[in-house]
């Protein structure tokens, strides 16, 4: 019998590549000594940055004795967290119920179902706020346990433990700016905490949707629904990105860089590019949250 220790699927979450973009920055900005780097979270097993908090929330709830295999887990999600939780639940033996607005992309819904998750679709008009309220009501009715990515410290904690250290390591401590789309705010909150501890001068920039824009994965929450894990004092600047700019950048990344990224990732890249135009000798890192193939049915990419 072989004594070799092979990794499990859980073991290969994280340690995603950090790659230099070669053309989007342009020769003028590159000549100033600027470097634009994308962290390829689509390389995680379920295809997004949300693999990290999904396994973190389930594993740590188990460690605290709050859940056990066979239990029902409930979560309100607009997409990537749901896919990641569906995968993690399948890996660790849970029934997963996901609640989300009905306008999610077909690819996302099919992927969640492939992992065995049950879907409850809510009216588009209610947005994620309605989905979150329904999840809490189901928990009060005893129909399962809500992991609550919006208030669960294990969401931000895993980025403090993994994403931040990986960026610091892979840039040799040279990162000057970290740019992230803001949804649950777990990525920006946990990563910023680590990077600021290593170097308080690192600038943390959040990408938010401009008024009237609907960008999957990027949200500007009403005050009553602002994620409890969010730490505004750890974010130096918020930059608004329009839906058209994010979608155009997604197409440019694919055509000019060969980087097939999702729309929220493209929004973060657009923000990073605006920053680079005002900087010299900067190392800008943005999170490529997921892959573009999750958005083919939306019409963002040419048929």
From TrEMBL:
State the needed cofactors, names only: pyridoxal 5'-phosphate
| Pfam families xref list | PALP
- PROSITE patterns per the UniProt record, alphabetical: CYS_SYNTHASE
Q: Which reaction does it catalyse?
A: O-acetyl-L-serine + hydrogen sulfide = L-cysteine + acetate
Question: Its Enzyme Commission number?
Answer: 2.5.1.47
Q: Which family does it belong to?
A: Belongs to the cysteine synthase/cystathionine beta-synthase family.
Q: Which PANTHER family match?
A: CYSTATHIONINE BETA-SYNTHASE
**Name of the protein this chain belongs to:** Cysteine synthase
Gene source species? Roseateles subflavus
């Amino acid at each position: 019998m072989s004594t070799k220790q092979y990794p499990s699927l859980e073991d290969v979450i994280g340690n995603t590549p950090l790659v230099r973009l070669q053309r989007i920055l342009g020769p003028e900005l590159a000549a100033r000594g600027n470097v634009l780097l994308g962290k390829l979270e689509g390389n995680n097993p379920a295809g997004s940055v949300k693999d990290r908090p999904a396994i973190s929330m389930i594993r740590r709830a188990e460690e605290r004795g709050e859940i056990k295999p066979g239990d029902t887990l409930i979560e309100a999600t607009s997409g990537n967290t749901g896919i990641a939780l569906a995968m993690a639940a399948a890996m660790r033996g849970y029934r997963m119920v996901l609640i989300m607005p009905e306008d999610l992309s077909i690819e996302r819904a099919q992927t969640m179902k492939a992992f065995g998750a049950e879907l409850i679709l809510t009216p588009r008009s209610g947005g994620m706020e309605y989905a979150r309220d329904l999840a809490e009501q189901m928990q009060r009715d005893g129909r399962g346990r809500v992991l609550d990515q919006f208030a669960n410290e294990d969401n931000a904690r895993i980025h403090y433990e993994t994403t931040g250290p990986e960026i610091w390591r892979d840039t040799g401590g040279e990162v000057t700016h970290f740019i992230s789309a803001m949804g649950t705010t777990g990525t920006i909150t946990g990563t910023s905490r680590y990077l600021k501890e290593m170097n308080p001068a690192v600038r943390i920039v959040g990408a938010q949707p401009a008024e009237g824009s609907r960008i999957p994965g990027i949200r500007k929450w009403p005050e009553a629904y602002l994620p409890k894990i969010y730490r505004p004092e750890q974010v130096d600047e918020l930059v608004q990105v329009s839906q058209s700019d994010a979608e155009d950048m997604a197409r440019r990344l694919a055509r000019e860089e060969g980087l097939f990224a999702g729309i929220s990732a493209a929004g973060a890249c657009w923000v990073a590019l605006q920053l680079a135009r005002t900087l010299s000798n900067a190392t800008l890192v943005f999170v490529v949250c997921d892959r573009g193939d999750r958005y083919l049915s939306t019409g963002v990419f040419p048929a």
